[in-house]
Specification:
The chain has two helices and three strands, in the order E-H-E-H-E. With 103 residues, it is α/β, with parallel strands linked by helices. Strand 1, helix 1 and strand 2 (63-65) form a beta-alpha-beta unit.
Length: 103
């Protein structure tokens, strides 16, 4: 069936309102210590093991420091946790941080 009809199309998404920027250059994580920070809100206990596995498969000798070492970055003691964070990162010799913020 040949149909020569022309249809007008409406795109409901509209133009993008967010300006995208290129990703930062990637760093070699071989032999680094990575700290996991979390706000204890959404699925960190599921997500961090996945990240740990994925990073460990890609880089050798990576060490991970659990979010439990730092405390929750949201609610309750968040101000104390965040104020103590710079010294604690230095004390634990953390090279990089992955911060999980849920919901």
């Amino acid at each position: 069936m040949a149909n020569n009809e022309v249809y007008e199309v409406f795109w409901p998404g509209g133009p993008s309102a967010v300006h995208t920027v290129p990703s930062a250059p990637r760093t070699d994580l071989t032999g680094k210590r990575i700290g996991f920070l979390w706000d204890y809100v959404f699925r960190g206990e599921e997500i961090f093991p996945i990240l740990k596995k994925s990073i460990s498969e890609r880089y050798e000798n990576v060490e991970f420091v659990s979010y439990e070492k730092f405390g929750s970055t949201f609610g309750g003691d968040e101000h104390a946790v965040l104020n103590a964070l710079p010294k604690l990162l230095q004390k634990l010799k953390i090279d990089a941080v992955i911060s999980g913020i849920g919901c």
